Amino acid sequence: MSRFQATLDAVAAAMARETERGAPASYIPELAGVDPSRFGVAVAPVDAARPPAAAGDADVRFSIQSVCKVFMLTLALERAGDALWRRVGREPSGDPFNSIVQLEHERGVPRNPFINAGAIVVADVLLADRTPEAAILDVLTLVRRLCGDEGVGCDARVAASEARTGMRNRALANFMAAEGNLRHPVEQVLQVYFHCCAIAMSCRQLAAAGRYLAAAGRTGGCDPVITPQRARRINALMLTCGHYDASGEFAFSVGIPGKSGVGGGILGVVPGVASLAVWSPGLNAKGNSLIGSKAMAMLAARTGWSVFGPLDDPAPGR
Ligand SMILES: NC(=O)CC[C@H](N)C(=O)O
């Protein structure tokens, strides 16, 4: 049995007892209707010979939403190299994920690739010389390779709902197009972005997919996915920007790089040790999984993973 199994079982049991679970995202019916009592957790050790350990609803697929921005960035960095950083920044925004305020001051260059505006620029990079369908397939192919599961796909209903309701994302994209920071038609760029947000994965798949970030850019089979330097860059961005205007609090209470999505998933990275994924659909006021964040804090406390020193009590607010 994995050395993580007992800890994961304890975390799942503790989270099942939590009564305050937040509210699922309400902007599309496919997310609003997910049962908030759901909770899953999985840990994938860097040594790929050891399969992920998991507990709770770790094999139930959910909408990964903004967690996809990690995989989009990975691919875009491979394509565009450091030139990408001329079109998107690398610093925290301190604003909500869909904020538009900074864009005007900063001439259509988003603060980082993990806020929506930044991921929309990344989607534009992924569209170079391709149709939107091919760009989406490229991201799916990467994710399938990373988690070793050809069955991962996009939820077409989620993608359609995103497109129907995505007026703010359309506003962000149009503003950046006006500033000359998009090269392709706005609707094509958004098609790529919305489909990436609609990728459905389980915690077990997501933890396995994130393993390269804990393993200096290599998959378990020692296949390079990205250079060690770029893996380090993505991890640093996850730590500083992965939870938007709650990134500082997540750093304090969990203390590892993490990327959240409004579907209630969070991908975490412990460099040199493991990647992990949690999922619970109820969100806190900042749009991050309430129980997922708590579970990560408990896991970090029990494993000593926080880079900021020991955590003896995951209760927030201290
Ligand atoms: N934080 C998120 O997960 C945001 C993703 C969502 N699809 C949006 O674009 O608004």
Question: Would you give an account of this structure?
Answer:
There is one protein chain. The chain is of the alpha+beta class. It has two domains: 5-64 and 201-303, DD-peptidase/beta-lactamase superfamily (Beta-lactamase), CATH 3.40.710.10; 66-197, Beta-lactamase (3-Layer(aba) Sandwich). It is 45% helix and 10% strand. It has 14 helices and eight strands. It has helices at residues 5-17, 29-32, 68-80, 101-105, 116-126, 132-147, 156-165, 167-178, 186-197, 203-209, 211-214, 228-241, 247-253, 290-303, and strands at residues 40-45, 53-56, 62-63, 153-154, 199-201, 258-260, 265-270, 274-279. It has a five-stranded antiparallel β-sheet, sandwiched between helices. A three-stranded antiparallel β-sheet has the order 3-5-4. A hairpin with a 3-residue loop joins strand 7 and strand 8 (274-279). Helix 3 crosses helix 5 and helix 5 (116-126) packs across helix 9 (186-197). The chain is globular. The two termini are 35 Å apart. The model has no long low-confidence stretch (mean pLDDT 95). The protein binds glutamine (GLN). Glutamine binds at residues 65-66, 97-98, 116, 162, 169, 197, 261-262, 287. It catalyses: L-glutamine + H2O = L-glutamate + NH4(+). Belongs to the glutaminase family.
List keywords for this structure.
alpha+beta; three-stranded antiparallel sheet; binds glutamine; five-stranded antiparallel sheet; about 325 residues; Beta-lactamase; single chain; 2 domains; 8 strands
The strand line-up of the biggest sheet is 2-1-8-7-6
Cα radius of gyration in angstroms = 18 Å
What count of structural domains? 2
Order of helices and strands: HHEEEHHHHEHHHEHHHHEEEH
Number of helices: 14
Level-1 CATH class name of the largest domain: Alpha Beta
Helix- and strand-based class? Answer: alpha+beta
Instruction: State the share of residues found in helices, binned by percent.
Output: 40-55%
The CATH superfamily of the largest domain is known as DD-peptidase/beta-lactamase superfamily
Q: Average the pLDDT over all residues and give the rounded result.
A: 95
Small molecules held by this entry: glutamine
Q: Which term fits the overall shape?
A: globular
How far the N terminus sits from the C terminus, by CA atoms, comes to 35 Å
CATH architecture of the largest domain: 3-Layer(aba) Sandwich
Strand content: 5-15%
Query: What is the number of E strands?
Result: 8
GO biological process, one term: glutamate biosynthetic process
GO molecular function: glutaminase activity
EC number: 3.5.1.2
InterPro entries: Beta-lactam/transpept-like (IPR012338), Glutaminase (IPR015868)
